[in-house]
């Protein structure tokens, strides 16, 4: 298959897919198109949602129709625009080297799933903490919930499938792992990932100039705190 | 206008909503807004309001309130009926209420949601420009939560109180107030979802030919439909990608979910289809047990319907403003 491919999500949203697997080069192209649209938004653009292999572009079809009633199907006009942009897409400029240190209290009441994680990985809890906190992560995308970051990549030794039974409620700031990623739950939430710790940092504030603490491309290191 | 909530009946969820916050999706913030956007807009248009002004969305239970400062109101939506000082008010029309009036919004069997609009809109503190309440995030609306006994809603404008009750002689004719026939399938038009072609033709046919039933698992985030057996799959996991209200996601071993106003911004289940925008309010009002029949349309038809619908609303708004002499 040749990438990018273009698909219609709705009358007011389209998806551009840059590859099959969430590889570095694919992720970079998603970010590059997103950056281009942020810099030069087309009239009617509402929001972009960059993910691992796709960029979803939301727009106001009536705004596009009113500007140019002869344009035909608004979503088709947006796809034409995105195809033109993608054809001339420059590689992403250097990623910001922002490194954020996130203090975490691991285990105990702060990381209810740590004992089970350690047991399933046949490690001591301290080894899980060490591997997790020694890894330099990068924010791959924000999604699922306000300010919710997906961070990669987790060392292979820590990979576990998602939980079979979803935890009904984990507290705000829960740091969790699943597959080859780690995440932080910004709000109290049901959780399908294994919670190993908790941070006091606030990940989302609707009234802050930058509502999300983290954004795609930022680097993150978790710093173990004494409980 | 000033309205104090006197009591909230069991099961009531009353939240301030508008047409959502589309610009905040990049931060992982759901669109939110009215579940039945059509009734929300009609309630506003009845009063000469802009379609996006805040209304009070009521579902699931009875709401009693007292008008502490009078004004003009309208209730729209098949899920509720308005009573003024204990007397029923015919639906879909403007009423003027003096100070001290008792209001009741009573759930009705014709649907799930109703919308109470005030002339000039309800006052709110905007979050990303919107009044909408996103309960799971504690964002927007009335302190990020549903209304409770003792809460007070203010109109956005200081307008004179009518001295006595006034009921407008004209109204919007809608067909939503009779109880639905659950076994008569409701026709819902859909677009192919990005992963439509993943399903074998036999399953695609089953999706379109067999009516599906609305399950009891309904929320502002998603309405589930029974039918896990027909669409079950063991496709490779989809890498989390964009979804929006109307997206029909199919988990491998659970009922398909039609995502609604509070849908998460991204999801990892394959998207078999997309309910077209003008049909999504029908899903919001569909009761548990309602049969749905999906009909595939193309993007041109869906877009045309949306444009015609929006232009029609615009004409309706203009007509109301002429009638009340404000245009």
Protein traits:
heterodimer; A: 227 residues; alpha+beta; Gyrase A, domain 2; Cyclophilin; 2 domains; seven-stranded mixed β-barrel; four-stranded antiparallel β-sheet; 13 strands; 24% helix; 30% strand; elongated; B: 327 residues; seven-stranded mixed barrel; six-stranded antiparallel β-sheet; 5 helices; 17% helix
Structural description of this entry:
The complex is a heterodimer of chains A (227) and B (327). Chain A has helices at 24-39, 61-67, 74-87, 114-121, 125-134; strands at residues 5-10, 13-17, 45-50, 54-59, 99-106, 137-142, 149-152, 167-170, 174-178, 181-185, 189-191, 194-198, 219-224. Chain A has 227 residues and is α+β, with helices and mostly antiparallel strands. Chain A folds into 2 domains: 5-87, Gyrase A, domain 2; 99-224, Cyclophilin (Beta Barrel). In chain A, the strands form 3 sheets. In chain A, strands 5-12-9-10-7-6-13 form a 7-stranded mixed β-barrel. Chain A has a 4-stranded antiparallel β-sheet with strand order 1-2-4-3. In chain A, a hairpin with a 2-residue loop joins strand 1 and strand 2 (13-17). Chain A starts with a strand and ends with a strand. The mean pLDDT of chain A is 94. Chain B contains 5 helices and 21 strands. By secondary structure, chain B is an alpha+beta fold. The relative contact order of chain B is 0.17. The longest helix of chain B has 25 residues, at 299-323. The A-B interface holds A 7-13, 15, 22, 46-54, 56, 58, 60-62, 65, 72-76, 141-148, 150, 187, 189, 204, 206-207, 211-212 and B 22-29, 127-128, 134, 136-140, 191-194, 239-244, 246-247, 264-266, 271, 274, 276-277, 299-300, 302-303, 306-307, 310.
């Amino acid at each position: 298959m040749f990438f990018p491919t273009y698909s219609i999500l709705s009358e007011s949203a389209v998806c551009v897919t840059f590859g099959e697997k969430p590889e570095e080069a694919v992720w970079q192209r998603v970010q590059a198109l997103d950056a281009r649209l942020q810099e030069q938004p087309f009239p009617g653009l509402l929001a972009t949602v960059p993910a691992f292999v796709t960029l979803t572009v939301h727009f106001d079809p009536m705004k596009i129709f009113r500007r140019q009633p002869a344009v035909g199907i608004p979503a088709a006009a947006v796809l034409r625009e995105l195809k033109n942009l993608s054809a001339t897409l420059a590689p992403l400029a250097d990623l910001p080297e922002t490194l954020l240190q996130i203090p975490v209290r691991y285990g105990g009441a702060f990381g209810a799933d740590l004992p089970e994680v350690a047991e399933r990985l046949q490690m001591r809890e301290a080894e899980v903490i060490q591997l997790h906190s020694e890894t330099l992560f990068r924010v791959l995308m924000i999604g699922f919930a306000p300010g919710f970051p997906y961070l990669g990549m987790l060392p292979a030794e820590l990979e576990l499938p998602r939980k079979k039974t979803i935890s009904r409620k984990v507290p705000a700031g829960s740091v969790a792992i699943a597959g080859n990623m780690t995440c932080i739950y910004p709000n109290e939430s049901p959780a399908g990932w294994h919670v190993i710790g908790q941070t006091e940092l606030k990940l989302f504030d609707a009234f802050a100039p930058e509502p999300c603490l983290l954004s795609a491309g930022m680097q993150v290191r978790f710093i173990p705190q004494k409980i | 206008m000033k309205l104090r909530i006197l009591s909230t009946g069991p099961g009531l969820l009353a939240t301030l909503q508008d047409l959502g916050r589309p610009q905040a999706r990049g931060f992982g913030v759901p669109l939110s807004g009215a579940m039945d956007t059509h009734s929300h807009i009609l309630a506003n248009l009845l009063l000469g309001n802009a379609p996006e002004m805040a209304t009070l969305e009521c579902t699931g239970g009875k709401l009693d309130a007292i008008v502490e400062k009078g004004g003009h109101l309208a209730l729209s939506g098949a899920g509720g009926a308005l009573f003024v000082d204990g007397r029923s008010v015919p639906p879909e029309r403007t009423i003027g209420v003096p100070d001290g009036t008792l209001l009741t919004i009573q759930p009705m069997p014709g649907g799930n949601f109703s919308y109470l609009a005030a002339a000039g809109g309800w006052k709110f503190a905007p979050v990303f420009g919107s009044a909408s309440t996103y309960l799971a995030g504690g964002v927007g609306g009335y302190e990020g939560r549903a209304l409770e006994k003792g809460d007070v809603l203010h109109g956005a404008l200081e307008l004179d109180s009518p001295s006595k009750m006034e009921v407008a002689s004209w109204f919007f004719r809608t067909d939503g107030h009779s109880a639905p026939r659950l076994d008569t399938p409701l026709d819902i038009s859909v677009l192919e979802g990005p992963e439509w072609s993943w399903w074998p033709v036999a399953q695609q046919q089953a999706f379109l030919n067999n009516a599906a039933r609305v399950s009891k698992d309904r929320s502002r985030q998603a309405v589930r439909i029974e039918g896990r057996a027909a669409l079950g799959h063991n496709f490779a996991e989809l890498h989390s990608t964009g979804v929006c209200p109307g997206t029909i996601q199919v988990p491998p071993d659970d009922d398909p979910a039609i995502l609604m106003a509070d849908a998460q911004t991204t999801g990892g289940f394959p998207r078999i289809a997309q309910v077209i925008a003008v049909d999504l309010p029908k899903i919001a009002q569909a009761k548990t047990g309602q049969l749905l029949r999906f009909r595939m349309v193309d993007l041109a038809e869906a877009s045309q319907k949306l444009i015609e619908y929006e232009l029609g609303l615009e004409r309706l708004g203009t007509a109301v403003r002429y009638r009340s002499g404000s245009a």
